Amino acid sequence: MADERSVYKPALGKGIVPHEARLHHEKIAEGVLQNALKKSRLTFEDIDAIAYSCGPGLPPALITTANFAIQLSEKYEAPLIKVHHGIGHVEISRLLTKAKDPVILFLSGGHNMILAYVEGYYRVFGEALDITCGNLIDVVAREMGLPMPGGPELERLAKNGKYVNLPISIKGMDLSFSGIQTAALNLLKKGVPREDIAYSLQETCFAMLAEVAERAIAHIKKEECLVTGGVAANRRLREMITVMCEERDAKAFFVPLEYSGDNGVMIAWTGILAHKSGWKPDFKDKINPRWRIDEVKITWI
Ligand code: KG4
Ligand code: ZN
């Protein structure tokens, strides 16, 4: 086994540039593969299948890895497994935490979803309607002049803050964070201390997330809650989810920090699950940039 990484990092203060991400992936692919084989003491003779992230995501980055995987699969005559990026996050988190059948809070920069496995699919019980909570945190942190990613810095600031009012917005089981963003940026302009905004932002957003998670647990009668994605690192969020679970006699699980962000192992592991259970995609395209998580038939549970 190996866990080799080479992460594309945009220039300081900038977001992801798709074309740069593509060039990065092209440049490092062969080296990362060779390092992984060396570390795990394997050759291609030992490889049963080749998994790659087929979507969702930015097409230039997806197509680079897809082409690389297809080339390997043809060269070594190994079957190709198309993995859904979000399912990758869920499955590596289930493996490492040993959560069996949880309500899942998937909170990365790009995704906010409340998921649970029901009859063959990870169903979406709620999601962010506009921006994600991670997005909101990063935008407000950037305006505060904090380094990216904003989450850890905002969490540090929040320790010394007190509560100021921010608008809660839950629509059914869905969440809207854009009103909080506008309100928080207005408070910042008015000169409200950064600590207070940081504290209130965390309290408000995490209370919203805990509320919909609690309702999902109650409604579909699950006994576990699993939090994954970059935002899962936040201690205050962990505390709120833990308390909510205790009150419901449910068990709280949090993905280990090392595997909360994107990683190749999550794609490989999901590839193994899919391959062993005979999973087949119902489309022919190399990549599926808008692939929805609840379209993936789960054949391994
Ligand atoms: O899953 P992730 O590492 O990357 C992808 O989006 O794929 O998630 C990144 C998000 C960023 O918005 C970052 O600010 C947030 O996770 N984050 C945190 C913390 N650490 C990272 N948010 C709150 N508290 C943290 N300690
Ligand atoms: Zn991700």
Structural commentary:
The strands form three sheets. A five-stranded mixed sheet has the order 5-4-3-8-9, with helices on both faces. A two-stranded parallel sheet has the order 1-2. α3 crosses α9 (264-276). α2 links the parallel β1 (50-55) and β2. It is globular, with a radius of gyration of 20 Å. 46% of the residues lie in helices and 14% in strands. It has helices at 18-40, 59-76, 85-97, 133-143, 150-158, 178-189, 194-220, 235-247, 264-276, and strands at 50-55, 80-84, 103-107, 112-118, 121-127, 170-171, 174-175, 224-228, 251-254. It is α/β, with parallel strands linked by helices and 301 residues long. It folds into two domains: 18-87 and 261-295, Nucleotidyltransferase, domain 5; 99-259, Nucleotidyltransferase, domain 5 (2-Layer Sandwich). The structure holds 5'-O-[(R)-(carboxyoxy)(hydroxy)phosphoryl]adenosine and zinc ion.
Total helices: the number is 9
Oligomeric organization of the protein chains: single chain
How does the major sheet shape up?
A: 5 strands, mixed
Q: Rounded to an integer, what's the Rg over CA atoms?
A: 20 Å
For the residues shown, what is the average pLDDT? 95
CATH structural architecture of the largest domain: 2-Layer Sandwich
In CATH, the homologous superfamily of the largest domain goes by the name ATPase, nucleotide binding domain
